[in-house]
Amino acid sequence: MNRDETVALFEACEAKRAAVLGAGKSEDEAHEAAKAHWNAWAAALLAERKALQEAGRWAAKKQPWGDLEPKNEETRAWMKQAAADLSSCLFLVRGADGTSKETAGQEKKETKDADPPVKSIQLEGDSADFAGFVFPGYAGFWSATFSGHADFRSATFSGGANFRSTTFIGNADFESATFSGGAGFRSVTFGGYAGFESAAFSGSADFHSVTFGGNADFQSVNFTGDSGFENATFTGYAYFSGAAFAGSARFVSATFTGDAWFESAIITGNAWFDSTTFTGDARFAGTTFKGDASFEGANFADAARFASTTFSGGAWFDSATFEGNSFFAWAGFAKIASFYSIRGERGFDMAGTSFEAVPDFIQAHFEEAPRLDNLEVTGRTIPRHPRPERHEPGSRLRRVWQAVRFVGARVRTWPKRAMKGARHSIPSGMKANGEARNIPARWRALKRLAIQGHDTDRELEFHAREMRSQRFAGDWPLPLAIWSRHAWGGFFRFWFGILYEFFSNFGRSLARPLIFWLAAAALGAVVYMSQSPEIVAARHRQEAKGASLVSAAASRAWHAWLSKPVPCYAGQPAPPKDQNGDTPVYVSALSPALQNGTDLANEAWHLAFRNAFIVLDGSAETAHRSYGCLYGVELYGGGNPLAVVPGAVSTASAIQKLFSALMIFLFGLALRNMLKMK
Predict the structure, then answer these.
(1) Does position 473 have pLDDT exceeding 80, yes or no?
(2) pLDDT digits (tens, 9 = 90+) for 59-102
(3) pTM for the whole thing?
(4) Which of 473, 502, 552, 662 has the fewest CB atoms within 10 Å around its CB?
(5) Looking at the predicted structure, is the pLDDT value of residue 109 above 50?
(6) Can you point out the beta strands (E) in 531-602?
């Protein structure tokens, strides 16, 4: 039928509706009368098609998008007669006062290219009611306008359905509708609620550039063919829970302003999700989720592409199954991202992905090691508790008061919390909030994935983050429950973890242990030289003149290091012999032969670096020269001279050797990690 014939048929249906309503019957009975009139026409055509098929005169080829192309004149004639053309129609509903409900912008201006011109249809009720209508062939609604509610519930579209550029000012309900051919909704505007719950699309479903002004309900929809939502805008909630995508599902450059729900959605085709989120052969390149996006329990039967997707809200993929390759490279997650207990059966690419919060991969299972190159978690390791902004008036005093109240509460409840701590693995008074308690486990899960992928850099990073996040979540600076071994374990982990981070950045820094090793050697050299009798005497002379201990020591160190070299210790003058003719023990200078070419600063450095290298302790002669130059030698009557070693120098040497050994170990550990040696 052409448009005039279709409009005439529909107006006849509306006349049947008006007659039944005029007889005082219900709206349901009136609709049944209108539907029966329409479906009688459809049933006659379907019977004619069946007769053609049985006679072997039906010839049509199904196009990839689901529509039929006639291959003989009889089939072409049937399709022309079975077509329902309501394109460019304006469906006007009546207001409460019985007048037509028209608002600004509802009427479309005709243009010289408009074909056909706009046709106004006056409706009897408050909606355009096509519920249960059967469209035996092509159904054309392109560029139509529905001023009120549009009801297509349980409608059957046996051929192609064209709603391109249609405007639904009110709600549009396609619940349980059946689309056997291609369904075209390109550039449609839904001003209100758009309901497609339990609808079935056997051919392609084209929702390209559609604007959903209200909530969009696609729950339990069955997409047998390809579906396209490219550049679609979802202003309200988007419900795709339980939807089945057997063909390609493309959401490229779609925008979700409200929450998007995809729980238990099943996609049995490829899933292409560049810059978005979904499952199956679903392409979401450039998609932005401004609200929460939930894909809990979803099944990705083929490739799932979420590359460069932006998740401004929370993203949940809990218990989802990725049967094909999955791509989340360069995606951005601004809030919580949960991949708890997901299953990846093929490749899983998260290279360059950015997470503002620590993602949850606890109990995630991957058949192939996931790729985590350049993955970043840019947010805080431990969630920050809400607090006043710095620019708020009185915010500093408020934060101080909150801190005082927090400490006071802990002090008042210490006995009760300590008793609980004796019965539990971690004292309950020390427990942080639940979110902070889960963060170390999340870092541990990420570390496990890095180990699986042999990604040493990510493994070390996640290990460092795990140790940091454990502070104040399970490890505490004071063991309040002093009888609990778990409390003491957390206490030692807390402080040793801080030292491990400070001196080596968790075994990842070559520079830190090297700098501390050199600093310890320099400090040791200063200490060793400061104990020389020559320096001690000079310092005492300056102190006698009123200089402080610090300034005197600094002055002498500066003089010894950077000014005129200070010669070796000159020793004590030889005491007179005793009554037996023996010379008493005294401290003498090093022999002139050993003093030649050295001084206090040189020997202090030499001693410091001998201790710093630990194993390079040098010979006995070298030690004799260093100690003798710095502190002199003891002479016994007729015996060999022994170098003097003050007690403070012995203690400092032991401390330096121990510290140097630790720094050398940390340097070697960082070198091993840098070279990825096992």
Answers:
(1) no
(2) 888 887 778 888 899 999 999 999 999 999 999 987 534 445 44
(3) 0.65
(4) 502
(5) no
(6) 586-588
Q: How far is CA 384 from the centre of its chain?
A: 17
Amino acid at 277: T
First-last CA distance in the chain: 78
What does the longest C-alpha to C-alpha distance in the chain come to? 150
Q: Which two tokens stand for residue 468?
A: 């940091």
Token code pair at residue 79: 């399709």
Around Cβ 229, how many Cβ atoms within 10 Å?
31
Burial of 389 (0-12, 13-18, 19+ CB in 10 A): exposed
Of 105, 121, 101, which is closest to residue 3 (Cα–Cα)? 121
How many angstroms from the chain centroid is the CA of residue 108? 46
Q: Which pLDDT tens digit goes with each residue over 167-207?
A: 999 999 999 999 999 999 999 999 999 999 999 999 999 99
* 535: CB partners within 8 A, 6+ apart: 529, 556, 560, 566, 600
Q: Where are the domains of the chain?
A: 515-666
User: Alpha-carbon distance 133 to 10, whole Å?
Assistant: 11
Q: How many CB atoms lie within 10 A of CB 412?
A: 10
Token pair for 154: 């349980």
Taking 70 as the threshold, does the pLDDT of residue 425 lie above it?
no
User: Per the omega criterion (within 30 degrees of 0), is the bond before 116 cis?
Assistant: yes
